[in-house]
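seq as requested:
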Amino acid sequence: MNAKTTNARATALALLDAVLARRVTLDQALVENRALGALSPRDRAFARLLTATVLRRLGQLDDALARCLARPMKSGTVRDILRLGAAQLMFLDTPPHAAVATSVDLAAAHSPAMKGLVNAILRRLAREGADILKQQDAARLDTPEWLWQSWSVSYGEAAARAIAMAHWREAPLDLSVKADARAWAAKLDATVLPTGTLRRAPGGLVEDLPGYTDGAWWVQDAAAALPVRLFGKLDGATVADLCAAPGGKTAQLAASGARVIALDQSEVRLRRLRDNLARLKLTAECVTADAGDWQPAEPLRFILLDAPCTATGAIRRNPDVPHLKSPADVAHLAAQQDRLLANAVRALAPLGTLVYCVCSLEAEEGLARIARLLNEGAPIERRPVAPAEIDEIADCITPDGDLRTLPSHLAADGGLDGFYACRLVRKS
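struct tokens:
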């Protein structure tokens, strides 16, 4: 048995435990896992891919394993070992002997008495897995019921199914460039999306790509780049970017020629933002403060509020989200969003523009927040988005004139993160 390959799977087991048992985000688990750094780049990538595949396909995997078990599996570690083995057999085209043998090795290390069971279940799954897949309603199985109901109510069942299916694929790498997109596309082996974002296949270290050290571009999903465009021309204008870190939109605003006040309550996150801006040779005034309390010295004409949210629109990039978030998180964050919106309105000058956005698919964090703000009599009104402002992607504009992207949008080009944005103007 290849020890390095076994270590990659052992690392995946630890990552899976961190997410599902300790409820740590996958990104944080990757940072904390010391064994990951000792692996070769190839094995490190495999450990992450294997973990992400289990998280993306957890419903299908558990359903398939349940069909092969006489009674529910109680041991969390052995259950996760079976999930890892099943993911290799059903979705990663790992040779059956390798998937089974390495899973048995993991069982021997963690629960020797269960070696025989792991061997028997995975051998059976190697024979029957393809037929089981044909019988499954995969989109429903891989989507927690509360999310399925939320999306079905908001967008219809067909769209909910398309969203769920989009989450199976790893998101491409999207880049925003400061200038000369087509020239950089050639250098980066990327395509230029209709929105101007560069898109390339995922994989490899971002830091190794041409233009990184020169500060020619930054990583930013194509959908995340759209809300800033709703301000129009900003050359020389002052813009407050509330909840700014990690700074993709801050960079976008600064690159457009705006004077940016980048606000975040986390000094650690602001430090990362400053580092990113330094690499990009862009500047912003960075302020550590709570956006629910902070007020500028004088009212501002332009404010961006990219509010904290459940991030259910970014499941393609964060497959841990469905397993870590719940309806209680939606309600908690909606209350925070109301507080942030109310304070942003207070900071806005007459006829000033406020763009509110969240990378959530939940109506309670998007449309419902704006409806509440308007119904409570805030001195503000909606300014609908025109298709020309987002390069004629008309199906990303709601009947109210807000921006709403779904993971299934631009599917032929690799999809988009789910984003909601509303442009509001303060009454004179």
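The radius of gyration is 23 Å.
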